[in-house]
Design brief:
about 325 residues; alpha/beta; Peroxisomal Thiolase, Chain A, domain 1; 4-stranded mixed beta sheet; binds acetyl coenzyme *A
Length: about 325
């Protein structure tokens, strides 16, 4: 037995922000952003929160799976932009969708968050602890970027993607996940610091900080290596994979991964152009876009991969 994705869903905020819109806020241009990253526009939350977007994506995924909220045993949300320190976003989602029989918690693995949520659900399901789970990646990155810093604010967007998973004969074939905490400073966002009358505190609340070139160098090596490893361990050849659904950080990273694997770029669906980088939400949003178009048939083999803050990365081969 393994773990199979039986339904997917996504939610993107209504508010579209183009590169030209951003050029009115910071010194940038559509040409710079699009040529460096492949991003043309992104959605930025107005009234939506991480939890409300997650819940909307979850409701679509449950409908797609034919599963009711009462049947959900476990809710795991991958996010770095929780609305509250506590309760978790997953507990907020539980309350909104009325999944009162579930246990709910969040995972912080940045852009790898959905992958780690899937791997964690898989471990619980295969151990017999639960029968089915709702796994979600949801982010409101717009609230943790410095909107005066053109080197980061143009890269990200907001949204949520979700999937329902259950125990089945086919599904997840092999998954690997890794972290490199020693490189974590290359992509960080500091949380609230000590702030009380007993200590001196001069630092301000943190925003996303990134050494883009270090992250680029890291992903150029680690991501193809993890994909090659998971393919080898699953006994699946690169050409047998119908779609490589990988984290949407930057079109150049995606193109370089395709080149290193010797696989056509046509096998790499793209959402970076209209979504930007939505951290943990990018893999499930793209998966749902592909699924909604009817591009996945039973028996197809697909590869999912995430990479980002921590640093963390993960790759998985699945039979649909
Ligand atoms: N508009 C115009 N100019 C800009 C902008 C902008 N938005 N941002 C930076 N610049 C300028 C810089 O100030 C710099 O100017 P200078 O030469 O006068 O000093 C110049 O452009 C080059 O800056 P770099 O940071 O060297 O730009 P680079 O070519 O490396 O591109 C980028 C930046 C796109 C982030 C690149 O490093 C990259 O692709 N990194 C990969 C990491 C990534 O995609 N991270 C996303 C989040 S992490 C994740 O999801 C894993």
């Amino acid at each position: 037995m393994t773990t199979r994705i039986i339904g997917t869903g996504r939610y993107l905020p209504e508010n579209i922000v183009t590169n030209d819109d951003l050029s009115k806020i910071v010194d940038t241009s559509d040409e710079w952003i699009n040529s460096r990253t492949g991003i043309r526009e992104r959605r930025i939350a107005k009234d939506e929160t991480t939890a409300t977007m997650a819940a909307k994506a979850a409701e679509i995924a449950m409908k797609n799976a034919g599963v009711t909220a009462a049947e959900i045993d476990l809710i795991i949300v991958g996010t770095i932009t929780n609305d509250y320190v506590t309760p978790s976003t997953a507990c907020e989602v539980q309350a909104i969708i009325g999944a009162e029989n579930a246990m709910a918690f969040d995972i912080n693995a940045a852009c790898t968050g959905f992958m780690v949520a899937m791997n964690t659900a898989h471990a619980y399901l295969q151990s017999g602890y639960y029968e089915n789970a709702l796994i979600i990646g949801a982010e409101t990155i717009s609230k943790i970027v410095d909107w005066t810093d053109r080197s980061t604010c143009v890269l990200f967007g907001d949204g949520a993607g979700a999937a329902v998973v259950k125990k089945d004969q086919v599904g997840l074939m092999k998954s690997i996940q890794m972290s490199a905490g020693a490189k974590g400073h290359n992509l960080s966002c500091r949380n609230r610091l000590n702030n009380n009358p007993l200590v001196e505190n001069t630092k301000e609340l943190g925003y996303v900080e990134m050494d883009g070139q270090e992250i680029y160098k890291f992903t150029a090596v680690a991501v193809p290596a993890s994909i090659v490893k998971v393919l080898e361990e699953s006994g699946v050849k690169p050409e047998e994979i119908k779609y490589y659904i990988i984290h949407q950080a930057n079109i150049r990273i995606i193109q370089s991964v395709a080149k290193r694997l010797g696989v056509s770029e046509d096998k790499f669906p793209i959402s970076i152009d209209h979504c930007g980088n939505i951290s943990a939400a990018s893999v499930p949003i793209l998966l749902d876009e592909v699924n909604e178009k009817g591009l996945l048939q039973r028996g197809d083999k697909i590869l999912l991969a995430g990479f980002g803050g921590g640093l963390t990365w993960s790759a998985a081969v699945l039979e649909w």
